[in-house]
Structure formats: structure tokens, C-alpha cells
Amino acid sequence: MSAHLSSFLALKNPEAALREAPELIEFLPIAIYACDAEGRVRWFNTRAAELWGRHPHVGDMAERFCGSFKLFGLDGSLIRREETPMAEVLRTGEPVHGREATIERPDGSNLIAMVHIEPVKDASGRLLGAINCFHDTSELHRAKGEAAENGAMARVAETQQRLLLDELNHRVKNNMQMLHALLRGAQRETASEVARAVLADTGQRVGAMAAAQQALYDAASPASFEIENFMNVIARSAQQTFGRRTAIRLRTVQGRLPTDCAMALALIINEVVMLLVKRHAGETPLPIEVSMTRSGEMLRLCVTAQQCRLALDAVEPRASGLGLVGGLAQQLRGTLRISPEGVCVVEFPAPQGE
Amino acid sequence: MHGADGRPPVARILLVEDDFLIAMTLESDLRDGGQEVVGLAATADRAVELAKAARPDFVIMDIRLAGARDGVDAALEIYRETGIRSLFASAHADARSRARADRAAPLGWLQKPYGRENLLEAVRHACEQLPADENKA
């Protein structure tokens, strides 16, 4: 805008424009002043005087180049009159645009101004002077400073939130380890074989829940999790739990599921793998395939072991085995069935998390 | 380090864990699994002291410990002064802790909560990484 303005002011009669202020300068929403080729201030508008906080003496050699009381760079260094952008334009004949400096007023107040200076030349190209349009950018700087401060505060808040989440994750899992330790202690002290087996199974379920907790902690969203990552974590945990007794292979679709599906899914996979491993009599690891596929709007979780078939008994306990799997399938608003080939199939609607 | 006749190797292990219940179970599970527990420490300083005195084959090291120093500090000092490595156990091992622990040449990482099987498998894996020692069989 300033380049157009100064061109308009100067082109028709540049010498006259420098000698006498055009009337319209008082109507401009911007500070403006002109200097001759020696740097003497020839005229300025009221807005310029407001920003300077003073009225420079027109034509005074002692106030060359700039009407301000003092001028500083943004780094706080003093800018002498001969170093001002106006002096530079008059020395080089080249315009200066968008440069900023701090104006200090006689009353000690200050502001940041951005200058746009155009050289004024006659038809032969001889430099006659220059016109400087400048405006107050202090508010912009304050806003930038606040934004930077807000950004820094947001980063601090984010770090604190991450520390809190880390701490919570640590506490949850450490408590699970303590629960596991209590179960192991009870298992060791009981004389009952049945109680020992039940306590061992419960410990393994706690392990599956811990794996789900870790997967949810690692998920980018608090509302949903990525199916493939989650299934990988759960399968890896089951593989670690059952060690050399099984070799788990995973095949899964991609997509997302709501967070509240996580524990049920983890427990289902753990329970079925545990059942299969218990029924496996061989010495070699039992190959188990865990797959999650999509069928229309339904997701289908299958747990298969060729060498070991499952069958639903007439009465299944509800707190363990396939009874537990059936209950967890219902929690997912789905169903459990055992296929004629003895494969455990849990089908459930793919909820909104996807 | 390998067991004779296909038997699992017996390792002399120092446990560093500040939670009584967890330490107790850890010790029992290791002993049930045929391993030898040479000491139990709840702080980093005590862990360093015991490692120097008992010279275990390796340390099972919790990250968070009672006292000012954590398990990574202890593992680094033990490795620096004795060359003994650690198998780390933690409920939440962040990337920074893992990066710090790298200089102690970790024998592995056990994610809490872990069961007996996980523990013994990790111990077996740790033993496989240690140099063969005929006297350990």
C-alpha cells in the first residue's frame, strides 16, 4: 500500500510533493513524512507526530532522517540518525519495506513501528528525497508474545499431562503386579489342586488385562484404539504368558474400536488360548491362529488350533472358560459359537469407534 | 551359560525390588524355577553393595526403587564397576529410561505385571546371553 501511496504522491510532481505536504495526508490512517535528499524533514502528518510523541522541526539539519526522539533496533541497540532506514534509502536510492524499530518518545513511552520508505526521484532518475509511511505494530508484537507464552504454557501442560498419564499407567500396572503376587502367594499356600489352578488362571487373566491397559495407554486417542496394534499387543502378551506351550499366529483387519471393547477382547483371546493350551497334550508348541476379520457390519474373532478342538458343554461355568467368553461376547453385544470344526467364533457389531 | 543335559541353567541372581509382595513372589518363583537368589535389595545403594559382595550372574532390576536413585542408576553403576548386567522389570519403562539403561547392556525387559512363566522365560533368555560357564550347570 505504501509503495502505491508514495508513487501517487510523488509521480505527478515529485519536487512539489516533497516541498509541500499533500492535503490528503491528514486523512490517511497511517503516519507519513517526507525528507529531502539531505535528509531534512519536509513535512509530516498528525499521526506521525502522535507516534513520535513530538513535532520535529521542519528543515532542521539537527533532526535529519527521522522525527523520533530516539530510535532503537528490536534488539535494544540505539539507531543513530545516519543509521536510520530513511538515511539508508537516501544513501542507496533503494526502497526499504517492512523494517521495524522501537520509537522512544520524549516522555519515555515507546512503541514498535514498521516502516515502508520509497525514494522519490525526478524524471531523470535523480534522487530528490524519500517518503516514509509507518505504523504502530506494538499490539501485534504483544499478541505474538502472548501467543508464544500461551504456547509455552500449553507445552508445559502437555508435559505435565504426559507425566500424570505415565504415573497412572505405572500405578495401575504395579498394582496389577501386586495383585498377581497376592494370587501367586495364595496359590503357593493352598493345599487344594483346584484352588491352585483357579488362582493360576486368574493370574493369567490379570496379565491379559495389563496388556490391554498398556495397549490403551499407547493408543493415540482416549476414545478408541487401533485394532491391529491392540491385537498385536494382546497376542504378544499371550505368547509370553504361555511361552513354549504355544505358537500364536495373528491375522487381523485394520480399523478402530471404542476403548470399552478392549478389556473384553483381551480377556476373550486370553481365555480361549488358555483353554486350548490346557487341552493340548503334545510336547511341541500348539499352533494357534487368532484372526479378526470383517463380515459386513460385523467383526469376527476366531481362535483356531488344528490339533485341538473346542466344544461347548451343556453347562459352562460363567466365571471361566467358554462361559466367561460367552458373557464377554454379550458385553460386546455379540455372540459366541463353536463351529463344527471346534473353532471359537465371537461375532460382534463393529461399533462407532471405527 | 548353558545347563547340562538339557536342564535349564541355574543362575545366581540378585533381586532389586522395593515392593515386599512383589519381591517375595519373585524370589519364590525363581527358587521354584530352580534358580538361586543370592540377595534382595530395595534401594540402589544396597543393590550396588550386594552386587559387589555376592557377584551374581545377573540382576533382576526394578526401575522405581525406594530412595533417591532409581534402578537404572544402580544398574549403570553395577555394570560399570563389576561388569554384571541387569534384566530390567518395570510397570512403565518410558523411552528415556530405556535409552539411559542401554549403557548397562540390558539382558531384557520384563513388563509388569508378569507371571511365573514370563519371568522364567526371561531368566532363561538372560542366561543364554551370558558367557558359558561350566561351573554353573
Q: Based on Cα principal axes, name the global outline of chain B.
A: globular
Global Rg of chain A: 39 Å
* Number of continuous helical runs of chain B: 5
Question: In percent, how helical is the residue content of chain B?
Answer: 40-55%
Mean pLDDT of chain B: 87
Spans where pLDDT lies below 50 across 5 or more residues of chain B:
none
Work out the strand percent of chain B: 15-25%
Count of extended strands of chain A: 13
Radius of gyration of chain B: 14 Å
Q: How far apart are the termini of chain A? A: 51 Å
Are there runs of chain A of 5+ residues with pLDDT below 50, and where?
Answer: none
The secondary structure category of chain A is: alpha+beta
Q: Specify the biggest β-sheet of chain B.
A: 5 strands, parallel
Biggest sheet strand order of chain A reads: 2-1-6-5-4-3
Give the CA-based shape of chain A: rod-shaped
Largest sheet of chain A: 6 strands, antiparallel
Order of helices and strands of chain B: EHEHEHEHEH
What fraction of the residues of chain A are assigned to beta strands by DSSP? 15-25%
What is the multimeric organization of the chains shown? Answer: heterodimer
Which structural class do you get from the secondary structure elements of chain B? Answer: alpha/beta
Short description:
The complex is a heterodimer of chains A (354) and B (137). By secondary structure, chain A is an alpha+beta fold.
